[in-house]
Design brief:
It is a single chain. The chain has about 350 residues and is α+β, with helices and mostly antiparallel strands. About 35% of the residues lie in helices and about 25% in strands. It contains ten helices and eleven strands. The chain has helices spanning about 1-10, 10-25, 30-45, 50-60, 90-105, 110-125, 150-165, 265-270, 300-310, 320-335, and strands at about 65-70, 75-80, 165-170, 180-190, 195-200, 210-215, 220-230, 255-265, 280-285, 290-295, 315. It has a five-stranded antiparallel sheet, covered by helices on one side. The chain has a four-stranded antiparallel sheet with strand order 9-10-8-11. A hairpin with a 4-residue loop joins strand 1 (about 65-70) and strand 2 (about 75-80). About 20% of the residues are buried.
């Protein structure tokens, strides 16, 4: 009995059961050869009569299908037209949220992780043939840039994560574009804005002393699993390295306290999100001003965020951050021909 149950839960068999069910449900009274031909046309897979007969028997015994054979019409039919085939007990609401999760992940479309997750979600939801949720068309992700990740690189990285093995690869960074050679103990894969990063301990960093680093998978070349094992530290989580900041895939050694002034429509915008675990706001309505104070170890991302708000954001502290912000504005003004 256990062996039969495992066969039923095989994905290929469930696909056949769904096909058989849909054909019978259509009321065309298919015979065994019809089901074989339809399944082959639908999937490209060839099956024999014995397999189809076992599937029909499984529908009757394991799923209690009111399935009978009409000798006059020489085909199968359901005695109860309202009967539906459901492999699992997931309800319509759960299917809706699973499908929403797939939609939200569509930023990573055509990437290895998305293809695998989408395949699992599709398999779970499509087995519920009686549940069609039109609301899925009302949930969408706006078009965003997508980054292509080499599937061979992805497979090696995941293999090394699973086995705690050191990765060897060549790398061209965002700022240092020269090719460097890396030996990385991978801790985590990070997903952000359609991009993949691997976070871990780079044995070649800091002149060979080593240090924690982030690497964009799309810039990793000649990736190899060295087969050399390492011990994963207990506190490997990237989030603990951000100093309470929530600005994405970037980290520095030092946690910094920030104070930034926001004006006009930026005042409400910054209060709509949690940008840092310890963020605090102070409103000065008479000056149309909101002051935000928070801490983070992600200065580069904080700078990009402040600059993206243009004239409606002005950093006040720390002093070196303010100076860097002023230099960025000065260079933009020179590039625009405003300053000579």
């Amino acid at each position: 009995m256990q062996k039969n149950k495992e066969r039923i839960m095989n994905k290929r068999m469930i696909e056949r059961l769904i096909t058989i069910h849909n054909v019978i449900k259509a009321g065309i009274y298919p015979k065994c050869k019809d089901l074989i031909n339809i399944y082959r046309e639908k999937t490209g897979y060839q099956v024999g009569e014995a397999t189809i007969y076992r599937d029909i028997d499984a529908l009757r015994k394991n799923f209690h299908a009111p399935l009978e054979y009409d000798y006059e019409k020489q085909g199968y039919y359901y005695m109860d037209d309202n009967w539906e085939f459901s492999v699992n007990q997931i309800n319509a609401e759960d299917i809706f949220y699973l499908s929403c999760a797939k939609t939200l992940l569509s930023t990573f479309d055509n990437s290895p992780v998305y293809n695998q997750i989408a395949s699992v979600i599709d398999f779970v939801t499509q087995t519920q043939v009686g549940n069609k949720n039109v609301m899925l068309n009302r949930i969408a992700v706006p078009p965003l840039p997508k980054v292509r990740v080499n599937e061979d690189v992805w497979n090696v990285v995941i293999e090394c994560l699973q086995e705690n093995k050191v990765i060897k690869f060549d790398y061209n960074g965002r700022w240092n574009t020269a090719t460097t050679h890396r030996m990385l103990r991978p801790y985590q894969v990070l997903l952000q804005d359609g991009m993949y990063f691997v976070f871990g301990f780079d044995e070649n960093a800091d002149g060979g002393d080593g240090g924690e680093r982030l690497f964009n998978l799309s810039r990793m070349k000649n990736v190899e699993n060295t087969g050399r094992a390492f011990e994963l530290p207990k506190d490997f989580d990237f989030a603990s390295r951000c100093g309470g900041g929530r600005f994405g895939a970037f980290k520095e050694a030092n946690k910094v306290q920030y104070e930034i002034e926001f004006y006009d429509d930026a005042r409400q915008f910054v209060k709509d999100c949690v940008w840092a675990d310890d963020q605090e706001f102070e409103d000065y309505d008479e000056d149309s001003l909101t002051v935000m104070r928070f801490s983070s170890s992600q200065s580069m991302k904080v700078m990009e965020w402040v600059l993206s708000l243009g004239a409606n954001a002005r950093p006040v502290a720390p002093a070196d951050f303010v100076e860097c912000w002023q230099n960025q504005i000065r260079m933009m003004a020179e590039s625009a021909g405003i300053l000579k």
